[in-house]
Structure formats: C-alpha cells, structure tokens
Amino acid sequence: MLIAIVIIAIIAGGYLTYQMAVPKQTKTIVIDTWGGNTGDAFKALADKFTQKTGIKVDFVIQGATVAEFEKIQAGTVKVDLWTTIPALATSLAQAGLVASVDSSQVPALSKVPAKLNVLYQGKTIGVAYETLVDGVTVRADLLPNVTINSWQDLWNPAFKGKIGLVAPNRYMAASIVQTALANGGNEMNVSPAFQALKKLAPDIKTIGGTYSQEATAISGGEAPIYETVTATGYGLLQKGINVKFFMPKDAPIFTVTDYLVVLKGSNQNEAMQFLDFFLQPDSQAYYTQAAGTIPVNVDTKVADSFQKYIGISLADLYTRVYLPNATYIQSNLNTWTDTWNNQIQPLIST
User: Fold this and answer.
1) How far is CA 63 from the centre of its chain?
2) Are residues 209 and 334 located together in one domain of the fold?
3) Would you say residue 210 has pLDDT above 50?
4) 208: which residues sit within 8 A by CB, 6+ positions away?
5) Would you say residue 152 lies in a domain?
6) Is the pTM above the cut of 0.90?
7) Are residues 242 and 342 in the same domain?
8) Is residue 3 domain-resident?
9) 201/343 same-domain check
10) Distances in whole angstroms, Cα of residue 176 to Cα of each of 74, 160, 228
11) What number of helices (H) and strands (E) belong to the chain?
12) Gap between the Cα atoms of 228 and 155, Å rounded
C-alpha cells in the first residue's frame, strides 16, 4: 500500500510533494504439528507456501496429543492449524474453537474422499491430509517365498518366533482391530481379537512400542514378519533394506488417518489458504514421499517406488478403506491395553 506523505515546503515559491512506499504488512500463521521427518516436510512445504503467497508460517512442535489439546483449549498455546486425531478434533469443535471447512474455501478438498474427513453437526471440521495403512512388512531377502494375503496368515505355525506386532496403544489399536476384523468382529466387538491373539501370542517374537523398535527388529532380522504401517517399511526400503509390504486381500484396509483442523481466529482465512496449498497434488506428493505416508488427494501422482511398495492405486485403496470409530477406540483404549497386559503379554515368548 502506498501512503502518500505530503511534505509541503516553500521552495522557490512552489510546493514539493513526496510519496513514501510503506511495505505491506505480512501475515503469519502458526501450525502445531509433530516433529521428526513429518515436521521437516511440513516446514519445507511452508517455505514454498510463503514464497507463493507472502504469508509466513511459524511452527509449534507438539508432544503428547492429548496434552496439546488441553493447552489449545485453555488458550496457553495459540495456533491457527493443528494436526490431530478425530476424537480431539471433535472435542475442539464441541468447545466452539474450530472453523468448518468446505470446498468454496479450500477447493482441493473436493479431491479428498469425503469419508476420510471428520464431521461435526454435518460439517467438515477435520481434514485428512495423509493416511497410513496397517499391514505386514516382510524381509524379502530373509523370507523370499513368504507372501501375506490374509491377516490369518500370521497364525501359520511356520512363522513361530518370526512375528512382530505393534503395541496395542499404537495406531488406533491397529493390532487389536485388525485381528477383530479378521475374526468376525470390529472395534465395537474386540472379543474375537483377544481370543485369536491368545493363540498367536506364543509365536510372537516382539512387540513394538515405538517406530525405532519396529524398524530395528525388522532391519536386524529379529522379527522379519512384522505388522507395521506403510511408513515404517518404506523408510527401511529407502535405506536399502529389502522389504515388501502386504495388505490383506480378504478384508477391508485398516487405515490410520491424520487430520488438520483450522482454529477460529483472525488468521483462519490464511490458514485455509495453507490447507488448500497442502492438499494440492504436488504438495501431497512431496509431503507423503518424505513422510512415507499415503496421499489423500486422489489426483496425486505418487513416486513409482512407493506405488510399487503399496501395490494398489489410490482409487482402489480408498474404495476398500476401513475407517474405524476413532472416538470409540480412544474411549476404550485403556481397558483394551489392560486386557492385553493381563491376557496376551504373559503368553508372549520373549
């Protein structure tokens, strides 16, 4: 904006007028997200966004998601966009802190399968930006003849002492819900899962409580058949470790989805601009390649290596995808973890 500052001086009987250019004020939005390679990918895209729009982006790196929710709700952390899980997105909406999103504000939203997003009172309040499919990673060099076509394949006696599962409190209780789905149950009925897991437990070599534990057990050959999300195995593949990833062909694809919510406030329009930028195919391709996750924009062209790794098109994946009731899982997770610790963990031969 040019603000004309008129300085009137009597010089030689006339007037002099000066115009001074005053720089346009730059808006800054704050994104609250996780650290690690995903945080680095966020920051790299934020730099591209700033170059394109002039809107600056600052970051807050969150720790425990529930603790971060409490800070945002209390107002001790001020952010414009937050990466979170469905239950907490809904809780923020119930508190009146979240702006609803539609394709008039975020045009790229029209390319995201609607069933991936979080609704509250019929409006989208949590926008999916990446998914992680739960499946089985196999060390192809150590077990070249092993193919996992069904979740039930893990109960093959030949795999005794070679199996790893993720801990029950990780990835929305994926190990429990996957097993429930394979045995006639679901997240609302996990009894079949615990019955089946009791039979599998003596064959389990290790339980992964963190990404690094899972990656170490696979790369070191301790557990060459490991339940993981896509990002774990793909990260190993990029490091030169020969792994293959299998999704069960006889069941829905269990998917863990991460979400962005826009907080109400003076910067919500700029936050919507970033969200639209982040959902564009080029941005999705860059981010998910760096994070080892799966794009939500179905027009995204994924890298050939990743396409080969997941072995399924985005359109087919999102047709088969199973999205569990995340709020129900969150409310029952402590009970399930206690059941696991009392009934399953003691049976595992480690």
Assistant:
1) 15
2) yes
3) yes
4) 164, 165, 166, 167, 170, 214, 217, 226, 228
5) yes
6) no
7) yes
8) no
9) yes
10) 33, 19, 13
11) 12, 14
12) 16
